[in-house]
Amino acid sequence: MARHKDPIIPDAILDQLLAGADAKTAFDQNGLLDQLKKALTERALKAELDHHLTGDESGNRRNGYGRKTVLTEGGSMDLSIPRDRTGTFDPALIAKYQRRFPGFDEKIISMYARGMSTREITGHLRELYGIEVSADLISTVTDAVIEEVTTWQNRPLEAIYPLVFLDAIRVKIRDEGLVRNKAIHVAIGVRADGAKEVLGLWIEQNEGAKFWLRVLNELKNRGVEDILLAVVDGLKGFPEAIAAAYPETIVQTCIVHLLRHSMEFASWKDRKAIAAALKTVYDAVDDKAAEVVALTAFEDSPWGEKYAAIGKAWRRAWPEVIPFFAFPREVRRILYTTNAIEALNSKLRRAVRARGHFPNDEAALKLLFLVLNRAEKDWKMPPREWTAAKAQMAVIFGERFAKSRTRNRHSCIYVLTTRLESSLTLAMKIQATALSTVASKSLARRRLRLSQAMVRSTTQRRGSSSKPLAASDRLTISRVHVPIWAKAVSSLGPA
């Protein structure tokens, strides 16, 4: 198959464009590059009208030009939009009622996902491009994500996860006229190949066994049949709930969080020495050596006497710490070396701090979903320790771990297709949301119907949503999904 080559612009054309132009200002706002973009856009619009009038036997003709200012990634641009006499011409490049160039909305969502507030995005666009964008417009663009959050939260998951981390961050959310502290719980699953995946987000003001049982039953309904190890941060009611939903799962208190909790009792200058002293506890050979020798020695040491609350905290958490010592060092390292998860929590907290508080639960979920979606793209490689840990887990869990390797291999194609559907649906929803005037509502609804039909068609071809793809259906992406997407784009054009 011949390799695709990018089009090459002849040097003669480039020399003609640069003749008499100041190279220093070519890339400035309203410089040569912006003028070229404007000229190419207007030429493409004229070509679209020529195509529209070709073969028209009703006598439809050109009818001058209309003026329109659109927002682009590099600033505002004034365009001359060609018109026809009957008013049936609707350009695909810049649709009727559209005021933002393709790609502008994605830029707003990208800035929002980085944790920038609506006010910061407005100021950023004003300073860099001289564009005035209201907070309402930014909210309208980002609201296109809300339905995608629901789809993502209900997507099918792998059958078996060797490792699941559950963590919570506190956020301030306005509820019934009062700003309340609520916990947003994040579940991160590690598959048999070491790849990480965010399983879901849940908001709850009060934790308890009922809440966690609901979360775990939701995971079951989404296809999770078994969890080998669940690493949690002393979540209230979780051990009882996991025993009911996944009775064979081992619950392990997160050592990193226990250490961090211990540091809260100590002054800043003593923390390094205390961390070194506590390392003898979680680095012990077995649970007896850890409890009877190392922890007791710490409690009797000057640090243990000065900060007695640290020893008491470890004693209270000891029933959930004990499973840690049953594993070899390779698996232990995976359990307390959670750099990727800590980095993710740092991004979430940074985004939350930028907001102060949220008007409702939906706004909080919208932002955190975008942050998670962006963070997942950086998870390209499994942890360095995973290869050694995987070999040990295969011995410890035997058939259960072997099933995770075979079952997940069959379902990964299904998850890939589901994610592609979600991405394409979101793109269509962003385009539909971009048409913000009353006259554009029918076209927006038409775009959404097309995106939904696109998803339904792929789902019907691969059978029940609860089953992984069969071998004969693995070409769904190339043979079915792409033609439907191409048809949608060719019939409507970018919004």
In the residues, how many domains can be counted? 2
> Major β-sheet, in short?
5 strands, mixed
Q: Can you write the helix and strand succession as a string?
A: HHEEHHHHEEEHEHEHHHHHHHHHHHH
Low-confidence stretches: 410-416, 433-441, 461-495
Identify the overall geometry. Answer: elongated
> What's the average pLDDT?
73
Class by alpha and beta content: alpha/beta
Q: Give the distance, in angstroms, between the N- and C-terminal Cα atoms.
A: 33 Å
Strand order of the largest sheet: 5-4-3-6-7
Radius of gyration: 28 Å
**What is the oligomeric state here?**
single chain
What's the helical proportion of residues?
Answer: 40-55%
- The helix tally amounts to 20
Beta-strand percentage?
Answer: 5-15%
User: Total number of β-strand segments?
Assistant: 7
Structure description:
By secondary structure, the protein is α/β, with parallel strands linked by helices. It folds into two domains: 25-133, no CATH class; 155-399. Helix content is 55%, strand content 14%. Helix 8 links the parallel strand 6 and strand 7. Helix 18 (399-434) packs antiparallel against helix 19 (441-462). The longest helix is centred in the last third of the chain and has 36 residues, at 399-434. 28% of the residues are buried. The model is unreliable at 410-416, 433-441 and 461-495 (pLDDT under 50).
